[in-house]
Structures are given as structure tokens and as C-alpha cells.
Amino acid sequence: SYLVIYCKSYKTRPNQSFLGRDCIERFGQRTIQRINNDDDVICTTEYSRIVPLENGEIVVSLVNGRPGALNFSYSPVLREFTKATNIRLRFLRTNTLLGHLMGKALRDPTVTRRVSHRGLHRAPPYGFLGLQCDCQHNTCGVSCDQCCPGFNQLPWKPATTYSANECESCNCHRHSFDCYYDPEVEHRRESLDAHGHYRGGGVCLNCQHHTTGVNCERCIPTYYRSSGHSLESPLTCSPCDCRSQFTDGTCEDFTGRCFCKPNYTGDNCDFCASGFINFPDCYRDCSCDITTLIQTASLQTPTNGLVRGLCGCSGIGSLPEVCDASGRCLCKSEFSGPRCEQCRSGFHSYPNCQGAYRLPSSCLSAPPASTDTPAALVRPSHIIKM
């Protein structure tokens, strides 16, 4: 009798295949006449005959007689059951006449094995450590069980009789040669494969040449797509020429036109946008219809100074009651100008605007029509309150 133990790995419980004259006596298990499952552990007395007395051959097959033996490639349970890292033969006693008095000898133990190559290899060559898989179809690993770097457009799958399930390259437009597979990207159809179809979930890693994106298809901020180079060119992304303080540093693809900060416009953001005046300050033009300003402001939470901000009135020199009926800023008594941004005649040291005399605080002044016309007093009832 003897016991065959083969370990699936160093970390898992070993499978056992029993051979003995009396399965019940030795191993507490009945002899199985028929194997019903690919991973059944069996006890057999097939090799327990008295003869031959010597030079007998015992064959232990982990495949033959099992349900998946005739279709091994499509029997994942049987493939997993037959994988092992170590095999141990434990001899208990001989079973020939007075075998318990005889010595035992082991001659030419041979383990016939196959390399677990997932069907993605050629004939394995001899390497420094013995047999090694010669992986094909863009697969890598000791057992060809993973896709090679740069070939993760689709998830790895074992080969079948009808398909090699070849690992496909990611489409990084030659700006990267490494990628990983993301099932969420495939679900959202965001990855472009090498054939120009949104299929698979390959995501490029470490995009070069100032590119970014799932397929390295976009330029990083402060760079733009050059119209003179293809997407695969190392020069496809050119730096934006947006050195003005009124740009946000980014620019439009193919034209290189700078994107401006709010209130500014122009190829170099060197003009005020429509509705704004006095570059480089670019405050809102107060010649606009005050009714429109008030309607715009009413859509927001009413607060003192809201329309004043829209008209570009000075926060220091204007009154909190904002604009008058003509849309002009309402200045404090010691300030003047379209935006109340200067001291009134007779006052000095803007923004403190000190003078020899001051109007009573109950008097409110409006900006004059011209610098030669004295300021006109405005009644409090003329002030539009929010």
C-alpha cells in the first residue's frame, strides 16, 4: 500500500490519491468504482495484486477516467485539480506474500507532467531553471497567464480550441508603451482601441510629450494641439504663448488662442470684453440700461452694493445705495468721477479725500455731467434701494 500526495501550492491543503489493499482499513474511505466529479479524491485497489513480485509498474493518472478527460481545455475544475508544485510518494508496506518481512526498493520514479501554459505558448525551451513557457499572443508570465505591458486593451483570457484570445495592444498614439485594463472605462466606452473603435478598457500610463488622457489623446494644461503635426507625433503638443497677466495660461487647440480671464478678450487678452471698459481695469460700462442691471441683480440675493459692483463703482467712494436712475454711481460727498474713483474739487489725498470743509452727512452728491459743472445734489428719494 502507498499514498500519493501532491501539493497544489505551498499555501494550500494538498490533494491526496490513495492506493491500497484495504481502503476502509487504511484510509477510512471506500473504493470508488466510478469517478463522478473532476476533483474527486479516490482510493483504488487496482495495483494491489500479488504479482508481479518485482519490476512492477504503477501508473497514477489524475486525468484518465474523469468526466473532463476528453475535453481537458474546457474543464477548468480538472485543470485546477491537476496542477501541483510538489509530489510525494509514501510507501506504507508491500503486499506480496510475506511482504512485511521484506525490504522495499524504489526504482526509477518518474513524474510525467505538463506545463500549465494556458494554451498561449510554443514548445517550452530549456532555460536556466528548466522548462520555461515560450509565451505567444502577447502574453507574459511564468505560465503565460497575463498580458504583456502595453497589451491590456482587453482582459487576459486563456486560449481555447477555437480562439487564442490574443492580448491586444492599447492605443496610446505612440506617447506611451504601458497601460492597464479598467473595466469601468470599458463600460463607459471611453477607450479607443488600435482599430479606431471604442472597445475595451485600456488606460495608458505615463503619457509622454506633454499628453494626457485615456489614450494620451489630449494635451496637458498650458499646451495645445498643433495643427502642423499628427496626434502620433512627439511634437503634437506645443506650449501656449499666453504670458499676459489677463490670461489663465491655457489656450485653444489648433489655433493657440489664449483663454482670457473674466472681463477680457482678444487673441492676447489685451482688450476689455463686451460690456466692460477702461483696459486694463475692465470694469462694467455704466452707460448700460440701469433697468437691465437691476433685473440682473434681482435674480440674486438682494444685498447693498450689488448693482454698484455691476457698474464698477468704487467701493471706497460710492454710497451703498448704488446707482441712480440714470445708471451713474452715487458718490460720497468728498468723491467724484464716473466711478467715484477720485477726490472732489476742494478735497485731496485720495482715497482719504481730506478738505477744508465737508458737506453734512445728510446731503448726497451725484457725479457732475462734466468736470466744469458743479455737482448736483440728489434727494434721498431719487436713490434706488435694493
TrEMBL record:
Gene Ontology CC, one term: basement membrane
An annotated GO BP: animal organ morphogenesis
Protein name according to UniProt: Uncharacterized protein
Pfam families per the UniProt record, alphabetical: EGF_laminin (PF00053), EGF_LMN_ATRN (PF24973), Laminin_N (PF00055)
Organism whose genome encodes this protein: Neogobius melanostomus (round goby)
SMART domains xref list: EGF_Lam, LamNT
Ranges of residues in domain Laminin N-terminal: 1-128
Domain Laminin EGF-like: 240-284, 311-355
Keywords, alphabetical: Basement membrane, Disulfide bond, Extracellular matrix, Glycoprotein, Laminin EGF-like domain, Repeat, Secreted, Signal
Disulfide bridge map: C260-C269, C311-C323, C331-C340
Compartments where located: Secreted, Extracellular space, Extracellular matrix, Basement membrane
Keyword Signal belongs to the record: yes
GO molecular function, one term: extracellular matrix structural constituent
Entries under InterPro entries matching the protein: Laminin/Netrin_ECM (IPR050440), Laminin_N (IPR008211), LE_dom (IPR002049), LMN_ATRN_NET-like_EGF (IPR056863)
